[in-house]
UniProtKB/TrEMBL annotation, chain B:
This is ABC transporter substrate-binding protein. It comes from the Bacteria. It holds the Pfam family SBP_bac_1. Keywords: Signal, Transport. Residues 1-20 form the signal peptide. It comes from Actinomadura fibrosa. InterPro entries: Bact_solute-bd_prot1, SBP. Belongs to the bacterial solute-binding protein 1 family.
Amino acid sequence: MGLTVGLALVFWLAATSVLLGGQDAVGSVEDKGAPAYISARTAHAALSDADRAAWRSFRSGAAQLIGPGQEFRDDLTTAADNLAHIAELDAGGAAGRDLLRAVNAQVVTYQGLVEQADAAYREGLEPLGFAYLTYASDLLHGQDGLLKGIDEIAERDRRSVHEERHSAWFGAAAVSVTAAIGVVLLAVLVYVQVSMARRFRRLVNPPLLAASVVLAGLLVWTLVVFAQVGDALAEAHDRELPGVDRVLQSQIGTADAGSRALRVNRPADQGGGLDVVAVDAAQRPLDARLAAAGDTEGLMAGLPLLTLAVAGLAAGGVWLRLREFWR
Amino acid sequence: MTVRFLAVLLLLVASVSACGSGDEKSVTVLASWTGPEADAFQSVLAQFEKDTGIEVDYTGTRDARAVLASELHNGHPPDTAVLANPGDLRSYAASGALRPVGGGAGSDLTTATGPDGARHPYGIVVKAAVKSLIWYNQAAIGPDLRARLAAQTGWDGFAKAAAEIGPKPWCLGFADTSNSGWPGTDWIEDLILHEAGPGPYDAWASGRLPWTSDEVRRAWQTFGSVIAASGTSDILLTGYGQAGTPMATDAQGCRLDHQGSFITAFYSQAGGSGFDFLPFPGGQAVEIGGDILGMFRDTPSARRLVAYLTTARAQQIWIKRRGSGAFSLNRDVPPGAYPDAVSQRIAQALTSAKVVRFDASDSMPTVMAAAFNHAVLEFVADPGRLDKILTALDKVRRTTTFPS
């Protein structure tokens, strides 16, 4: 009796640990890693597009009237919002905060250089205006530039998502150990059933049989939920997040090609630009997958209740037989 | 039993508190050095750790200035930090954020007025770069012309001799992303220091001499003649590190590059060799740039680190690293300690200089220095605006407080 109750307790502990560990990993991806990564990539795309918008405004002569233009300002606002979001999420600890602080300082410097370009251009010093715009562009795209810093933040967040996806809670070992404990418990219940049938000349012990059935069901349910959570997180990591990234990368590529062309005074594609709506659309399947990964279908409550039922029924079944024997 | 338990508990709390304070056996350093520069500094720090058992926690970030400002704002500054320039040192000294340090090599260059109104050394020059140098490629300029250039004692004679080199005597490139224009400020500083002398230079650098004064105006006009005679286009868009590479790679390229001692690293990167320098003509004055370490938390470990970094032993570890570009203001470091002949000659020029001055724009308040940088770029774009530029600069001077 003690063995079955003990094994039930161990099963509950193992399954709950895997479930909670997995949900913690899913929560970390859903609440921090993935949003921080997308924010960093969006900030990159917004700044790339700001650079293109500024070049376009200066090359077209519109800067004389409107400076770097509304598109530039909108892009900078988008970048600032996303950087603020990364700060709120605080995914990188003290080192992450330092890096983000440095990036924010560079954004201010970048904006200042574009303002200098604007001022020089309006003063009639066109070559100086273009020189300042070039410095701004170099600050953005340079070797130790602003975008490199943002990419570092993005890479850190991508790594954290990757680590959570491959965390031990979703590994074969954790699931196998849980399943093995459940199977051993089931085997013990069957063994007790058979032993008692032999000793007490009663073929079936209903409470023990019920415990076995409940345990088998619980085991299947647990493994199905584990598999569903793991699959959903894997899909989010392997397919949906790269999908969002592809959308952003395409926008970054278009913006960078545009600013490169405008910089050397070649015509650039008028289309493209930062498309936040497309990013949102690409993000929806990711959000859905992560929501699915966070849905344990009631197992969190079912696990302790049904384990308790298994333990109770098993103990009850044994106790019933023993009581008959003692009479 | 209870008493024994309480005693053990108290002992534990005391131990944890002692460990948590961290002041006795560790010191934090913030600087902008990363990559090979950081490696060189770490090798200096490693010896300190070995000698003293004090652990040094080094943070290297390109945006050390912003990080320092933020940490000061949050009330958690590092024990020590390498400051971007003497202007920052003076501001932090005046605000009381910096703690005075003992004297040492170059302490006269780091003396500033504290919140008590008294003047103290607030930092040490941990690494100096020698400016006032004119670089050339030995293969591109014949020995006769070289000798004539070296013999000149004033700018006019030097400029005339330089004009004989060819259609593009001067390499000029003033781009440096967020800090563009500084190579031009170095030109004007050297012209004022060597042509007008250290007195007007000091007065100008400390905001006492107007930008519209004859000495300053003359320097700008001379600078304008260099630009006009350079035969170099794209000055605004050429990086300061790339400006001199045609000396090695282009037979028709420019021939003289006014730059600091650190520029040799760029020449090497471009695959150049055989570079040598001439001191800026007009007297034995040398302008230097330097990285200044300031102490923000006065702890015994921080004091020991500051004292160690000024020693000849520590400085030699640094300067001996090939390509470090570091020079020491400690006169106990012999020129022979430097790793190559050119570095040894630069060190000789530094130790034998009668006048050593810090880069004036680095010493000016941030707003003045930024205006100076911009003014250089504006002047390059349109030299005809000199009067307007100098008047605007002087307006900034008059409305800016220059900490002493």
